[in-house]
Specification:
This protein has 384 residues and is α/β, with parallel strands linked by helices. The chain folds into two domains: 25-184, DHBP synthase, CATH 3.90.870.10; 190-280 and 317-379, GTP cyclohydrolase II (Rossmann fold, 3-Layer(aba) Sandwich). Helices cover 35% and strands 19% of the residues. It has 15 helices and 14 strands. It has helices at residues 25-40, 62-71, 82-89, 111-118, 138-147, 177-181, 183-188, 244-248, 256-270, 281-284, 287-298, 303-309, 319-328, 341-349, 369-379; strands spanning 44-47, 52-56, 77-80, 100-103, 131-132, 153-158, 174-176, 192-198, 208-213, 220-227, 236-241, 272-278, 333-337, 353-358. The strands form two sheets. It has a seven-stranded mixed beta sheet with strand order 5-4-3-6-2-1-7, sandwiched between helices. Helix 14 links the parallel strand 13 (333-337) and strand 14. The longest helix is centred in the N-terminal third of the chain and has 16 residues, at 25-40. The structure holds guanosine-5'-triphosphate and zinc ion. Residues 1-16 have a biased composition (Polar residues). One of its GO terms (cellular component) is cytosol.
């Protein structure tokens, strides 16, 4: 496979020269399989100090609960992000903690109740819970839920020693917890070009698409090349996170559709530019979670608090992907079309030289006024 070096990344895995070592294919495969198992509700074992057996509350079924019960030693827990746990426990919690653990007693509570505990959009019933000390690998457990684009709410227990040789342990996967935490950075290093073709667009008849794939869930990221960006010292670049509702359906809840079309038009007028169309829907939380966040927004939360109520951060995008794509396209210096200063900072932290921020303001449409005002107030979007 033709992997790209990722320039300028700072990584805990990096050697002294700042380049990433090649990914260990066996360990990388274990992460991918763990994500797949999590989405199917199959428990996995997180390897490391004090290994855990873990399964997402959103996908677990009776069989998964049975495995936790039989292969876990005592002390099953529900792990939640502090922002979600605060609502369950109905007390303020320190949001900088990696996870909050709630003790589960045997017999383990039913699947429907676990889903309600994970998902604030469902009818809430809050049985009394006691907080217990989270295990050392709790953060990696929540990271697995996030990599699977599920709600970060995980049922877990310390796994019994010798679990792999027990009849029920056969076929369960062990994945190093550290690899789950390092994954966002590592996956960008596996990006490779898979296709390139002309796709004439309404507003840019000479546009070309370059498709990239990483070694993750098969998600594809697109570069839309307008004109000849390489002819410019610092071409206009738009980093656009996919928005099924806005880009495709024309949803009025956001400004994504007009921003996408507007960026392409503007690049065509300038004679060149690149839109990176990233498969990071909902600022990286996934489409289903974005729809849940909309439900919470309809109940009065703003876009930031809705993400947090689900247990996600306000912006969970992986800018290493964009940096790796720009490096592959040979774009070292760019002018970034955005109103979001955090995007500029996020790219710069990944080694991209953003020589100028170019505003990309879209007028409110009567439905998204509050959303746009919230982006200005809470993300510091510049509306100049
Ligand atoms: N979680 C969440 N995501 C949203 C919401 N509204 C839109 N999005 C997502 O936000 C992303 C759009 O953000 P962008 O336009 O790339 O960037 P931005 O951070 O708003 O900054 P700009 O570059 O100024 O547009 C898309 O992935 C949308 O799906 C929302 O209410 N909640
Ligand atoms: Zn949108």
């Amino acid at each position: 496979m033709n992997s790209l070096p990722v320039q300028g990344q700072k990584s805990t895995n990096a050697d002294a020269s700042g380049t990433l070592p090649p990914l260990d294919p066996v360990r990388t495969r274990a992460v991918h399989r763990a994500v797949g198992d999590a989405r199917r509700g199959v428990p996995v074992v997180l390897a490391g100090q004090h290994p855990l057996i873990v399964v997402p509350a959103e996908t677990v079924g009776a069989e998964g609960l049975h495995l936790i019960d039989r292969l876990g030693s005592s002390g099953a827990m529900l792990l939640l992000a502090p922002s979600r746990a605060a609502a369950v426990l109905q007390e303020p919690l320190d949001e900088t903690l990696p996870a909050i653990a709630l003790g589960l007693t045997r017999p383990l509570i039913d699947v429907a109740t676990l889903r309600r505990l994970a998902d604030p959009t469902l009818e809430q019933i809050m049985p009394g819970f006691r907080r217990v000390a989270p295990p050392p690998l709790a953060e990696a457990a929540l990271a697995l839920g996030k990599q699977a684009r599920l709600l970060p709410a995980m049922i877990t227990a310390p796994v019994r020693p010798g679990w792999a040789s027990l009849p029920l342990g056969g076929g369960l996967l062990a994945v190093p917890a550290a690899d789950l935490l390092a994954y966002n950075r590592n996956v960008a290093a596996t990006l490779h070009r898979v296709a390139e073709v002309a796709v004439p667009l309404d507003d840019a008849p000479d546009a070309r698409l370059v498709a990239f794939r990483a070694l993750d869930q098969g998600i594809e990221h697109m570069a839309i090349l307008v004109g000849d960006p390489s002819a410019q010292a610092a071409p206009l670049v738009r980093i656009h996170s996919e928005c099924f509702t806005g880009d495709l359906l024309g949803s009025l809840r956001c400004d994504c559709g007009p921003q996408l079309k507007g960026a392409i038009r503007r690049m065509a007028q300038e004679g060149g530019g690149v839109v990176l169309y990233l498969a990071q829907e909902g600022r990286g939380i996934g489409l289903i979670n974005k729809l849940r966040a909309y439900t919470l927004q309809d109940r009065g939360l703003d876009t930031v608090d809705a993400n947090r109520a689900l247990g996600w951060g306000a912006d969970e995008r992986n800018f290493h992907i964009a940096a790796a794509m720009l490096a592959a396209l040979g774009l070292d210096h760019i002018r970034l079309l955005t109103n979001n200063p955090e995007k500029t900072a996020g790219l710069a932290a990944c080694g991209v030289d953003v020589v100028e921020r170019v505003p990309h303001v879209i007028a409110p449409n009567g439905v998204n006024d509050l959303y746009l005002a919230t982006k200005a107030r809470r993300f510091g979007h510049l509306l100049d």
